[in-house]
Structures
1.
Amino acid sequence: MATSCAMQHAAATASHREDNAAPAWTTALRNCAVGLAAAATVLSSAVIAPPQAAARAPSGDSVTNARALLRNALPINNKDIREIQKALEGINEDLRIPGQKSLGPISRAVNKSKAALNSSRSKLTSAFNPDLKDDGVKALDGLAASLKNFDGVLEAKDKQGIPAATAEALRYVGDAEAALVKGFPYEVPAEFANLPQLKGRATIKMDFKLKEKRENGVSGGTMVIVADGYNAPITAGNFVDLVSKGFYNNMEVQRADGFIVQTGNPGPPAEGYVDESTGEVRRIPFEVKVEGDKEPIYGETLEDNGRFNDTPVLPFNAFGTLALARAEFEANSGSSQVFWLLKESELTPTGSNLLDGRYAVFGYVTDGEELLAQMQVGDTITSAKVVSGLDKLQAPKVTAKAQAKEA
């Protein structure tokens, strides 16, 4: 099945081409979905899956929440805060227990979190980045208050209120974890000094206007995106730089097929962002950080690197995963075009999909992701702004023109 689907895919694919053509590859993917699901695999839009990758087994406990993925991706190793995180994240699983039987395990998780916070608070405070200590202390105060409020939800046996209470507590956990990061964890290769780099994280607010009203009268909305420079400094840096320049303002959605939503093509003659210092399209090297590695891999996909079974720190696990589009057979051809994944389990099974390691993920939609499901070609990004983290954007240390002369 994998071979026949690969042939069908190869014949049909336009593969995230940097144009506006209708994606015939999506139909090919859907026609093959049943057989591929049985093999726990999916064909990406740019890479024909090798037999080894097609046999990759899905992970049974993969994380699919964007905020949880971002928490896990932080470069910290603090058992105390991770213990609290683990206890609170387990509540969503406890909620699956029918009726009121779930309240007991949830109550124990909340009590465990409170006990862990009380016993480790002084250690956590000492461990905060000195420059972020106030933020960290504020987060711990918020966490303590949210856990206290959680007791009221449980006493009222308000099962419907538990997800919101859990999400609030976990937001404070994430804020505390962010304050534990001390500096940037590695050196980006000097050869990429001509490109903007994000040495941390940035939050982007993106407003959309739909060309006509959709379900429930929706005519537009706002998405919040977190770009992760800790794990994709160049790819995230490129995006944040372009957002700060207003590049995506008034740009249309150029592909929306139920599988991805794509934008970022400025139109002919260029198919990407033209660097003012060179007059040429800025190209971004392929970038992916693997779990357990100290720094990202550059210039080749995980398949090309012989590591197709390894797991990226930023996987295609969440609805609204944001990645850099590129030409099918050119790993380093990305520029300004980006796409959001509309996760469908039959096409992109968590922990086994073949987009991982083949496209460079650099962020996730953390709020407003439901808008993606209603997007169509011709809808417009009316505004994109960096609302926090712009201070983490490092401008190129040398211009692309100067680097070209040196070469």
2.
Amino acid sequence: MVRARGHGAGGQPRPDGGHRMRRPAFRVVLLAALLVLAGGPVAGCGIQETAVIEAGSPAVADLLPPREGRVLLFFFSPANELLPVPRTVDSPWPNGVAGSVGPDDSSARPDESHRRDGVGGSPPVSGEMSESRPPIAAVTALLAGPDKAERRAGFRSAPSLPRAASVADRIVTRGRTVDVELRLRVTRLTAPARDQLVCTAAYAAHAQGAVSVSLVGQEGRLAPAECPVRPVPVPAR
């Protein structure tokens, strides 16, 4: 289960005042949206294949975790909560870089100049490392922005996160450390934009997001960070 801590796009905790009466209705809408984005209800998928995403309490949806063809992209909800959104991605291109995944973003694919070692680095260090698409696929998809269905559901990126899939250069994994190399000045990214990148890369590299992620840009690198959205054990049914 992945619990969103409820920080808004401005990086500050959301005040409860003025929102309590609207939360039940919002949860119903968000539940429907997430289930549609996930491809329909996932009841009967099995306990080990189920992750529960919570926006406060109670849980709003049961979603499959990252696996073959599926990644979790982190966008901000209409309530300014950083939430994982499931997305099915295209197969990696022959040059080793996955294509942009949004059905309406076919023009946002990275250029063909990427090297075959675009995901680079050391092999996974444990059985918990993700077996989904390479992390570069998830980060490229995130930078392409929400697709039409996600935008209709109200999901969005932080304003300082550029909507350009070509910004993603490559990702290097070294044990429990992931370097996300980007063609931009990472120091200009706000904290919410950094969280989107860190969380998307972390959960693409590790099933529980248990890695440290460094954002590397044209002017240097940022200190390693962990995703603020942490998994919570799913209770037996």
3.
Amino acid sequence: MFFKIGECYLNTQEMSLRINEQSILLEPKVFAVLMYFIEHNDRYISMEELHENLWQGRCVSDAAVRRIISKIRIVLNDDHKEPTYLQSLPKRGYKLICPVSQIAETSTSEETEKPISVKNNDAKKNKRFLFIVIATLFLFSLTYFIYKNIDKEVHVVTKVIDSVISDKKTLTVSNDGKYIAFTSKFSHEKDYHIYLKNQKNEVVKVLVDNTKLPLGLAFSNDNRHLYFSDNVDGVALLKLVDLKDEAHKTNTLVSDFYFIADVFTDSSEENVVYFSGQKSQQSAMLIYKLNLEGDLEEITSVAQKGAYDTQGSISPGSGKLAVLRAYSDRKRSSIRVLDLKSGRMLFNHTQNSVIYDVLWFDEEHIILLDSQKLTKINIKTGDSQRITVNINRLIALSRVSINTLLAIKDNDTINTLIEKKLPLSDFKNIEMIQEKQSKQGIIEAYHPIGNKVWMVINESRVNSLVFYEKAKVDKKVTLMSTEKPLKLISSSTSGQYVLLKLQERITILNTFDNSLTYLTKADDLIGDVAFSLDEKSVLYTRKNNGEWQVFMYDIGKKKQNIIFNGYRFIRPFNAGYVLGDDTGRLSRFDTEKEMVAPMLVNISTEKNTNWEIINNKIVWSTHNLKSTIFNEVDLYDADTLSIESKTFDFGVIRPRFYVDKTNSLIVVKSKGNRHSEIVSISIQ
């Protein structure tokens, strides 16, 4: 891949920069930082962001990072006082200010060719002839471009494959097409089972009955074994099942990883398995190759934090690896096709939506599955064809033959929002609301306070903030609507102010005049947000230059000031504030005494959890992907021995909750019973 940066050309395959016919080989870290600037050239990149995304927890000084940036300026021949490439601003960071574009590999050589001069007496004829040629070529190119970029459709025939009625996650097909293996869980069970179906006699039997989170399955080339991954409380396992043994004995191949997702094989290699995994919670997710003798090899690498190589697929003829890269912001995905021998990238595809799965159709085409469609892409030309499937909610794919795929189809589930009474010793259900109701979109957020309710409803990709009174459910008022991301954080008791996250910015909506006040920028790193006790101010935390700071924004005066340093979490109570550091360890600050007292309590730092102070009790949620735990402790007697907890199945009750302090309630989401089907897709 090539990028044009101002007047320079960056070759990502060779990690080299060409300037004025001179090619400069870049150091790996110089290349990684420059690529990060290119990928985020629309905004300033802080020193803190570079540390978090490119050094991933390693202790590296700011001076060392500045030396890397200085090397970038040197190779670009840029002046930091009057920059034309890389601009730096105090307290904001660094930004590429030159034009940046991705170009075809052939264009760099074409642009360096010297023009051929013509004689003056033939100039007019040549200009006229050149104009005709250019016009003809333009019309031809335009026609070809339109044809090439039309989403050509491929039609298919589908049918449901008989299996067990349950919630399925992943599947795979044996190389001879005789067997299907899939993971499945019944709604009343905690563990997943791995099933094997004989396509000839339709018999379905259980291979493994005690897996917790099996995300990857793959048959060995001789179909004598089945590889699978499992994830249990921060320990990932890669196992092998003997299919020829009646007892189906299992053997553990890997047990020292934090997380393992996809598992796949290469038809040309015996006793070898590939998988995507993380060695620790802080490390990158990469594609690994393992032979049965225990030799482990890294196949891919990740240069930035928040990028994960989650899945892979090897071409039918071997030699090429398609890698699905996911990003933590869930706003985009990419597919890279690599040459397995040289590691050279042969093809790259990026889209601004989540890709669920990728597999090979043949040696020149891959199939992508996202939430909207199946797409067939030619890796040599980039041509794409939409595969028309009259089935929604496909989540996983497997290849049977060149024209036949198997997929898992998720059926619709109806989730329920439950108001639960506090304290936890009671915690009974008060009211239940279906997430999807007639003549209404899906309720993304539901926040009651007293007799008032605020909701975010998503309908036809439009997010709307809706208000109503419980006694007047039929009289809902839409306060705002947007196609942009919208999250409800909290509402004031009076209802005048609503805290929102709008386009990744913390925002205050004044419902009296419908005005919006933005407190943060989209690229700010925010830790926590809450109203003050009198609801006249907003408390929020933001990370600046590696340190968390707590801000108080006065809504009436429209002014803010820093009230604490070093804390990521904050909640007010009648005598002061409860503060939490970056690890979630809590402390109590007494405003009158101006003293901080440590507490023997840690709250969760996960984004999909919450915490609050209600009736002088701290309530918070945690999870381990298997269980959701709600915890409660007295504010003035907080130690690990006095914590009361309630545990639920993570697949049923999610840890995120809203709080109704007026009625001493929290609102949780209960996932509906799910079942899915295996579907055969025959491409015509």
4.
Amino acid sequence: MAEKDLEKFISAAKRKRGANWSTEEEIILIEEVLKFENRLFGKMKGAGVKGKHGKIKEETWQSITDTLNSQFRNGRTSESLSKKYDNIKQRAKDKIDGIRRPKTGGGPPPAPLTQAEEALYQAMDTRPNIVGLVGGIDSDEPLACAADSLSSTVVENDMCVEACASGDASNSHTDRRSTEKKKKKKVAIREILEELEIENLKLENEKLAQEMKKLMLEQKKLETEEKKLQSELEFVEMKKSYMICKFNAEFPECLLNPTCT
């Protein structure tokens, strides 16, 4: 009996821990959460809204869980999905803060964003809560993170000007990249149009060449028919002269008698 209980305990622990997350699974989690973020994180007003909002959030997380489990069959729970999303969000914030406010005195470069973190950052890049208000508290973070945020308020206030400048530089860089992408897109479209125009000209030239060839063949045919007709006329004239000579030889009196027919 003890061995069976131990096996059940180990099996339950394995199910609780779950399988490792793949990159594709993380990205789909981010996409699904962003799709329903108003229901998950939006504020609701009115009487009895607290319990209703909690139920909506619970149902939404369960719907996302069902979506992921139907695709990957890893037996995830809504609690594990919520925790995983919070972890990805926190890691993305930490890495972005490290990129925008690099540490002084050297040290290793900031770790690059994973594909899931990059997807979350791209979706929330224009929103203020991706970096967070200086000294503010993110209600989605654990209490320990909120306490750390409060304890570092003074230091972060001193870095406000630098962070704003870095943010402006980042926005400028983003705008420049967007402009460059638009220019590249216009150039690509122009090149495609030019290629199509060249292709149309080639087709027109081929069509004209075929028409000219057809006209030349018809001209040669007409010339051949004209030569044939000329030969036939010459033959008729020769035959006519022969018949006249023959007639005169056989009936010489007709030459002297104009009434001879």
